[in-house]
UniProtKB/TrEMBL annotation:
<dbReference type="InterPro" id="IPR021309">
    <property type="entry name" value="YgaP-like_TM"/>
</dbReference>
<keyword id="KW-0472">Membrane</keyword>
<feature type="transmembrane region" description="Helical">
    <location>
        <begin position="12"/>
        <end position="29"/>
    </location>
</feature>
<dbReference type="Pfam" id="PF11127">
    <property type="entry name" value="YgaP-like_TM"/>
</dbReference>
<protein>
    <submittedName>
        <fullName>DUF2892 domain-containing protein</fullName>
    </submittedName>
</protein>
<keyword id="KW-0812">Transmembrane</keyword>
<keyword id="KW-1133">Transmembrane helix</keyword>
<feature type="transmembrane region" description="Helical">
    <location>
        <begin position="35"/>
        <end position="56"/>
    </location>
</feature>
<feature type="domain" description="Inner membrane protein YgaP-like transmembrane">
    <location>
        <begin position="1"/>
        <end position="65"/>
    </location>
</feature>
Amino acid sequence: MRKNVGKMDRVVRIALAVVLIILAYAKIIPANLTIATYVVAAIIAITGFVRICPLYKMLHKSTVREEPPQFN
């Protein structure tokens, strides 16, 4: 499967996942939303690590920059 998550997008996703996990663990997020927050953080982290986002695929979007052709 072709990667559709670029470098900066990947960093933002992983950082956001970490922040959500910290907020849920520190009980800043209400108790009834804690499980949902962990699930969302896990999904965001997984898409960041594997660099494939199913939503981007459905929308035909990609944040990966195309490499310029190498001329030798």
